[in-house]
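Troubleshooting: if your tokenizer reports a length mismatch, compare your output against this known-good record of 334 residues.
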Amino acid sequence: MADLRTIDAHAHILTEATMAMLRREVPSYRMQLRDVDGDFATLDVGAISYPKFPRGGWDLERRLHDMEKAKFDRQLLSVLPQTVAYDEEPALALAMSQIQNDHIAALVKRHPDRFLGLGTVPLQSPDASAAELRRCMNELGLLGIMIGSNVKGRNFDDPGLETVWAAAAELGAFVFIHPTSTAAADRLRDYYLRNFIGNPLDTTIAAACLVFAGVLERHPDIKIFLSHGGGFLPYQEARFVHGWREREEAKKNLKVSPAASLGRFFYDTILHARKPLEFLIGSAGADRVLLGSDYPFDMGQYDTVELIASLSIPEADKAKILGGNARTLLGAVS
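Known-good structure output:
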């Protein structure tokens, strides 16, 4: 275990240089870091103001310090979920994606021993998304994309998105689904339920739509990585399989049992306790679970390296989860 290089596969970044470029090139989009006070600031992104945005989100020195503390040797960098900009006009969203992608790629080139990178794409424009995905992987050296869990309320069974799934499968892209604009927001206003419940709920909806729309059946080699332990999906897989057998509605686009498709997802470890993580590993298998933190957010989990090391599972499985699976899926050599 001592020689294993760990990879945090769920980590977000928005540097000050990226913010400055976005303000300069996309002046119509609200982007500001203000009221910086020690470890936090307020981040204005589009129509959203995010108070207590942690310093590690923009400060590279703090990030590297925190990585050392958490025993993360490398991070797979992705954009903030707040900056996918699916509510904006396609041209503006594409410009935002390209700027962020260029900056993440540059950061990876400067620190190849510490970072790997994912891009993002404007899913409201599927053709532009497929083209930008190709640029990310063929020109920038990024390893895939992070996408939100819906496109302004459109689920992933939308036929228009097929061009994106086809391109991702063809390129061998790592597709990281992170919740955005979550469902049932009107009922989740209080107690921060929009995060506690809304985030795992929307990940579950996204995954279910990919399954029942037949996306994973058409593209069996596509690499879909689900955040926050897959939401509620691992706990309800058997319900989906049972429901497909019993209900004709579930067979509309999926003519075979969803069991095989459900077995193709990959999951991060962000479950905040031993028992749910043990359930996930036991249910999905160690080959489909990757270390993740959700850095730099306060809902992240930063004790997972030690937690995984303490689990009563084979050492080889610990090694897979801590970094081996990420290296295999991403083609990372070290």
